[in-house]
Structure formats: C-alpha cells, structure tokens
Design brief:
This protein has two domains: 2-161, de novo design (two linked rop proteins), CATH 1.20.1440.130; 171-353, Glutaredoxin (3-Layer(aba) Sandwich), CATH 3.40.30. 59% of the residues lie in helices and 8% in strands. It contains 16 helices and seven strands. The protein has helices at 2-19, 31-36, 48-67, 72-101, 106-127, 135-161, 171-176, 179-182, 208-223, 246-258, 262-270, 278-288, 293-296, 303-317, 343-347, 350-353, and strands at 42-43, 46-47, 188-191, 197-203, 228-234, 325-329, 336-338. The strands form two sheets. The protein has a five-stranded mixed beta sheet. The protein has a two-stranded antiparallel sheet with strand order 1-2. Helix 3 runs antiparallel to helix 4.
C-alpha cells in the first residue's frame, strides 16, 4: 500500500506540472521537459500521468478493502491485473521515450519502478492467500498516514510550481537595449507591420517547448493580426543534449527564407511528431532550402549563417538562457519577458491587453 501512495505522489506531481504548465526538476538534463512536451505524453488531451495517478489510488483503495477482509481473492486478482497492466504500459512508455523521443524522464523512471514493485508485491500477496492476523490494526493506520503524506507532498509541489517563474534574462540589459537589438527590421514577421503589440521570440528549432508553443502563438497572432505581430529570432542551444544540430537547422531555415519558405520550414519542423534529428532537417532542406543548401552549410561566411549569428549575438547581449524566450513590446508599456509557462499571463496584463483587438 505504501508503494501505491509513493506512485500516486510521483504521478500527481507530473499531473500538476502538466496543468500548471510547469517543469519538474530533472537533474542536469532536459529529458523530463522533452518527454512532457511530446504529444505522446497525453491521450485524448489527458496527461498520461493522470491515468497513472488514478491507477495508484485505485490500487491503494483496493488494498485497503482486502485488508478489511472484503472479497479478498477477487480484489487481489484485480490488483494484480492493474499492477501488471500498469507495469507493461510504464515499460512501453520508457522504451518509447528512449528510442523515439530520445530522452529520459527521471520521474517516469521512478513511476515505472514503483509500479513494478507494486506488481511484485501484489503477485506475492496473490500467491499467499492466508490472511495475516492483526492486519487491520497495521494496515488501516498505514493507509491514513500514507494518504496524508501523499496529499501533503503534492500540496507542497503545487506551492512550488505556483511561485513566480524565474526568467533567465538580464532585465537591466533588456531595458537599455536599443530597438535594433530587440526587433530588427530583418527579423521574420507574422502579423501586421503596424501592430501595436510585438512579441519577439527567441527560439530553437530543436526545442520541445518551442514546438509546443508554436501553434498556440500562431493562433493568437492570427486571431489578433491587426494588433499583434510575432518576430522570430534564432537562438540555437547547441550545447543542450538533443540540440546539437539546431544551429545548422537555423541556417537551413534562413536559406529557405531566401526562397520565400521561412514559415513553411518552421511549421513543418514544429509539426514533426518526435524531436527532430539531422535527417529530418535535411528532408526539410531538400524541400525548401535549395539544391546547394548542404554545401552552403560548410561556408561560415554564407549570408544565411551570418543572419543566424546576428540573432545569436543579440540573444547573448541580453543574456538569454532558455528557449523559448518572449520579449513583449508595446507603445507606452514597459518591456516584459515571458516563457512558455507564462506568456498568456503576461499578454493578459492591462498595459498590453488594452492594445490587443
């Protein structure tokens, strides 16, 4: 029973992170973020972790009932089935994350191990059909303590996620930066050139959060096309695992822009069902970037490379540390910064909302 509540805590934290659009700690990797933002992390728009949370609570409840002597053999069989199915699904999801998403989520691994232990315990209990004397005296208080502990743990996690989100940017540099650094005339634009509100996005073409946010931002800009515009700036994080090819991808994207296919390249990249690999970018290059695109990558003086480097230099001047980073500009309003987790809240502030039609 105790393991069921441990599993409920893990799944509950992942579920909260999903609905609060927050990120859970994941050691020194971005694996948890990459898995959480992949389309496979949800089923019918419901996070997989919520199904796990329900399964763990069901196992805890059924375990309590059989310790009370209620249809012991039947409940043991049901628990064994849930534990076995949960273990198979967990293993399958970990394998999918490893081979398809090419990321490892430590929280998902923990859930898989807990579900495996629960299944093993349920199997041993099923093999041992003789009820233990005094089990009620032990199991009922344990049920109450574990339930309270899991509830307190999830509550603390919610309070942690609800804290103000740290923005990795130097605000003093942002306030002092000239308009040419933030919104140069050469930046790729979506929306009206005369829009009152400008969203400057620094993004990485291999970034899971950028991928998730892209259709939402596009929908918002198109809905308010007369009053909101989007300026796209490249900021490939090549030192982050899984992003090693992102700078070359940005250069290929700029080559596509020369042929009038910038947004086609961006949209198809972000529509890929998994984290893009070099071969994915090469296919996009063959389609949009021209016949000499791969040869041009070898020339650091190529104009496409120079445009990418110019965006990177501006991002470095602002000391931007993550993608996507959004800078919000509007007449009479202070310059604001947002991430994928709070862009909607920032745009909902009165100084911007009053200018969005």
């Amino acid at each position: 029973m105790a393991f069921s509540f441990v599993g409920a805590f893990v799944a509950g934290v992942l579920t909260l992170a999903h609905y609060l659009n927050a990120l859970v700690p994941c050691g020194n990797t971005s694996g948890c973020e990459r898995v959480a933002t992949d389309p496979s992390s949800s089923l019918f728009n419901i996070p997989i972790s919520l199904f796990g949370f329900g399964a763990y609570l069901t196992l805890a409840a059924l375990t309590l009932l059989w310790t009370l002597g209620i249809r012991r053999s039947t409940l043991q069989a049901v628990c064994l089935a849930i534990g076995g199915l949960g273990t198979l699904i967990s293993v399958g999801l970990i394998e999918y994350a490893h081979y398809v998403i090419k990321a490892t989520c430590l929280w998902c691994l923990a859930s898989m191990l807990v579900m495996g232990l629960v299944f093993l315990i349920e199997y041993l209990a099923w093999r041992t059909t003789v009820a233990r004397n005094g089990s009620l005296k032990i199991e009922l208080p344990l049920f109450i303590v574990c339930a309270a502990a899991a509830g307190v743990g999830i509550g603390l996690a919610q309070r942690t996620f609800a804290r103000p989100i740290p923005i990795l940017i130097d605000r003093q540099l942002l306030a002092a930066a000239p308009e040419s650094v933030l919104a140069p005339a050469t930046a790729h634009m979506m929306g009206s050139p005369t829009a009152a509100v400008t969203i400057v996005e620094f993004a990485d073409l291999a970034c899971p959060a950028c991928r998730t946010m892209a259709p939402r931002v596009e929908e918002f800009v198109k809905k308010h096309a007369d009053s909101v515009r989007l300026l796209f700036r490249h900021y490939p994080l090549t030192k982050v695992p899984g992003h090693e090819y992102s700078e070359k991808a940005a250069a290929l994207c700029e080559m596509a822009a020369e042929r009038g296919h910038f947004w086609d390249f961006i949209n198809e990249d972000y529509a890929l069902p998994q984290h893009p690999e070099p071969k994915d970018f090469r296919k996009l290059a063959e389609k949009y970037s021209g016949p000499n695109a791969m040869k041009r990558l070898a020339d650091p003086s190529d104009p496409a490379w120079q445009r990418v480097k110019a965006d990177e230099a501006d991002a470095d001047k602002l000391k931007i540390g993550q993608t996507p980073t959004y800078i919000i500009l509007a007449p009479g309003a202070s310059r604001s910064v947002a991430t994928s987790r709070n862009l909607g809240d920032v745009l909902g502030q009165h100084e911007y909302l009053d200018q969005i039609k």
